[in-house]
Amino acid sequence: MEEQPKLPDLSEAERNALEELMPDEMSEIITSGIKRRHFLKLFAVTGTSVLAAHLLGIEQLMARSMPIEQQAPMLIENGINLSFKVNGSTQRLTVDSRMTLLDTLRERLNLTGSKKGCDHGQCGACTVIVDDQRVLSCLTLAATCEDKKVTTIEGLATGNELHPMQASFIKHDGFQCGYCTPGQICSAVALMDEANNGDASYVTANVRKKSKSIKLSDEEIRERMSGNICRCGAYPNIVDAIREVHGDKAVAQVWQFADGTI
Amino acid sequence: MRPFKYSNASDAATAIGIVSANPTAKFLGGGTNLVDLMKEDVMRPTELVGVTRLKYAKIEKKVDGVSIGATATNSFTANHELIREKYPLLSMAILAGASAQIRNMATNGGNLNQRTRCTYFYDVSMPCNKREPGTGCGALHGENKNHAIFGWSEECVATYPSDMAVALAALDAVVHVEGTNNTKRSVQFANFHRLPGDHPENDNNLKHGELVTSIHLPVNQFADKSYYLKIRERSSYAFALISVAAALVTDGNTIKEVRIALGGVAHKPWRASIAEHWLIGKQATEANFKAAAAAELKNAKPLQHNKYKVGLAAKAITRALEGAMQGGVYGAMEADSTTTNNN
């Protein structure tokens, strides 16, 4: 029996994707991995125009445990050598000048927590924290991030311990579908610092009175979180979750599990 | 997005040199508007020079006022002690604009260089003289609910979107710019942005390659009585239908000095000079505010869908002046009309 290269286990989604591509060979691939002749068969069954995409897809599927550098795209125009910190670890990569920070996080660094909602700076789903400020990663060019410090939703927890804002969103059911949640939480975490600095908002009673560490009313929380849209309309629960972390006393939870479900 | 060259400038001369030498190069500040316009294919620069690392991020007290750096962010500016204390009108206006995330990214220089949000400008399948000179104005006889009521031309009826700029117009700010060969000049804020005329492709009077380096705020006595009122279709994170920056100096109840600037009504921040002149020496009363506003709005030229802006602007001027008289304290005047269910 010939030696097979070691390949990572496939998830169900990956199996399905492969099965769709090459149904006849599926069982063999799963047991023995992709061999040269499978790639040759791809040449035969696909037009050359789509070949590159298929190859790239396979490479992505199999590259899960490989170093990130190996996922570099095949064609980069106006490449920028970038070095910056993401969730505490230094990342060095070459990006197309057109790459946004959001696409870099998701497509190059496998940090898919930050979401692409509108991709035009209107929804807040892509919110991350850069140098302690919440920003929109969809309107930030990666090329502008040299030497910066980026924190995404993946970087908030400490080991298995959730960030208090994450725990509070769960306690208060601050989401339904969850798509806007990473942006909401990153935004809310940065908001806590802004409140501690005494920053003002449009609904602050008197901008001339500057005091350290202000107490945010619900109206203030709503105004300051207005850059994060939630289509499920979980706003009242999001405000509760933020108020709990911001305030010094627990906020009552407005829901509970039905008997027997846990 | 189309391909472009990118570099981070380490000094202004280099940045200005690169942009001046290439007619399709642009400075990149926070990118909150330009990057979006590039995604939409509305703007197609072949080269970008990042300017946020230039040494223009300071806010400093000067003998004749305060200087705010062009690369300081909107958030930093709105929350700076000097601005909050001496120019609360500017803080209020900045905080009325966009969202916290965008204000954290946007620079002061970039704010003054942002483009209109006219939907015809954004839609590359539509005619627009601002985007593509000579193609016509889709909004003139199209959907023009959000468009200008003052100063427009047959070529363009777009409005200028910035809130910050409306306050700067009221405060008689001066914009400092730098060009090639270290040439520096100052532009009075009233002359910075322009009306569309026959060249709506030019939003302002900067030459290509000129970089905004700082904005000077002259000393004034308006801090006690100033207010920025923004009227929009939802209560936050929306562009103004009408906004008003109002500031007063009174002796007893007699108006000694007054500044009124409007947003959402023209191709540039609109100083309501007629209303201002009308009010000097008069009593600060609601009746006088209404009369002054009416005098200003008499010259309005609304389009098919934005006649509502004439009445709305008149009421907004009156309310903003009343807000300023009450010390610019948010909610002082809305307290009766809004529910107070927050705790």
What does this structure look like?
The complex is a heterodimer of chains A (262) and B (343). Helix content of chain A is 35%, strand content 10%. Chain A is an alpha+beta fold and 262 residues long. Chain A has a 5-stranded mixed beta sheet, with helices on one face. The termini of chain A are far apart. With 343 residues, chain B is α+β, with helices and mostly antiparallel strands. Among the domains of chain B are: 48 residues, 2-Layer Sandwich (Uridine Diphospho-n-acetylenolpyruvylglucosamine Reductase, domain 2); 100 residues, CO dehydrogenase flavoprotein, C-terminal domain (Enolase-like, domain 1, 2-Layer Sandwich). In chain B, the strands form 3 sheets. A 5-stranded antiparallel beta sheet of chain B has the order 4-5-8-6-7, with no helix packed on it. In chain B, strands 9-10-11-12 form a 4-stranded antiparallel beta sheet, sandwiched between helices. In chain B, a hairpin with a 2-residue loop joins strand 4 and strand 5. In chain B, helix 11 packs antiparallel against helix 12. The radius of gyration of chain B is 20 Å and the shape is globular. Chains A and B meet through strand 4, helix 7 and helix 8 of A and strand 1, helix 2, helix 3, helix 4 and helix 5 of B. Chain B: Pfam families: CO_deh_flav_C (PF03450), FAD_binding_5 (PF00941). Chain B: It comes from Mucilaginibacter galii. Chain B: GO terms for molecular function: FAD binding; oxidoreductase activity.
